[in-house]
Amino acid sequence: MNYGTGFIFRNYLIEFSEIAKQYEALKLKLAQEFQYDRVGYRVAKTDFVVKITEEAKNYYLSK
Question: Which InterPro entries does the entry link to (predicted)?
Answer without folding.
Answer: GrpB/CoaE, NT_sf
